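Review box. Two proteins, two foldings.
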Amino acid sequence: MPPTTSVQTFINALRSKQTKITLALDALMKGKARALTDDEMHQLEAERAFDLPHAATWPLSLYITMGMSASEIAHLESWPSSQRELVRKAVVDAIKTSTQVRFFWDLGDGTESQTDVQNMPGLGYVVTFWTPRTNIKGPDGAGEITIGI
C-alpha cells in the first residue's frame, strides 16, 4: 500500500489483496523481466541490487514507467533491505526457471512489516507484503488512511 490512501482504496486492497504497487510488480514480472538483456540480468543478479537508488538500475527505474508515484516508490524502497533481498532472489530464480511470480499485500498481527516469499510447486513464487495492523492510522480529516512501514 502507498503511505496514504483513500478509505475505498484501502477497502479494495483488503478484499483483493492487491495494491497499485503489487499490480505494478506483477506487470513488471510479466513484461520487462521476461525479456532481459544480459547486462540487465547481471544487474538483477547482483546481491542487494534493490538497495540502490531507483534510478540506478533498470528494475527499479521501471517502477516509474509502471505508473508508481514518487511516494509509492519511496514506500517500496523503505522496506527493510533484507526483505527486498528475499524478493530479488525469488525474481532472479523465477526468471531463470521460467516460473511465475505473483505479489500480494495484507495486514498482519505482528509488530513489524514482513515479506513472505514462498515457492509453491505448480504455482511459482507467491510474495506477500504484510503490514502490521497497528501501523494503520486514520482516516484523517481529508478521508485518507496512513499506512506505516
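Next protein.
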Amino acid sequence: MEPHEIAPALARAADLIRRKARRLARRRDFLRADEEDVAQVLTARVLARLPGFDPAAIGLDAFLRRVVNQGASVLIRDRHASKRHDPGAASLDHAGPGGRAAGVPDGRRAAHRGTARRPAQDQADLAADVGAFLRGLPPEERALAEALLREGAVAAAARAAGVPRGRVYAALRRWEGRARAVGLDAYLENPPAD
C-alpha cells in the first residue's frame, strides 16, 4: 500500500468501524457504554491486518469490510462463549444457599448471563425507536402490534384482536423486515452480523 493511500483508507475504516460499533452496542447482549470499547478493538484489528493487504487479491473497501465484519463476529462469538460459563456455577460441595456459588453477587451473575437490565438511556432509546416504528404502521397493524405488546403472547394477542395466529405471525415477519429496513435490526432477536 502506497503512503498516499493510507489516509483515505483509514478514514473509510474509521467510518465503517464507527457504524459497526454503534450497531453492536445496540444489540441486547452489549451495552451502549461498550460502543467505544468495540470501536477500539475493531480499530486495532484493522491496523493489525492492514500490512497484509494485497490489492491484487481484493479491493481496499472489501478488505476493510471483511476485517471489520470478522472482528465484529469474533466479538459476538466471544461474548456468547463467555456466557456459557456461569460464574455462579459451582460444585454442590462448595455451593451456598440455593445451589449458588458463595461470593458471586446476583447482579454479576445476571450481567454475565446477559439478563441484566439495560441502562435507563438504552431503555429510553428503545422506547422512542419502537414508538416511532409503531406510529408508522397502518392502523390495523398498529392495533395488532399494540395487542401483542399488551398481551405478550401471539395466541393471546390473536384472541384479543379476533384474528388467527397465522395472521399475527405473518405480521411479525413483515414488521421484522420493516424494522431492519429502518435500522432497528439491533433490537431484534437475531440481527445480521454483517
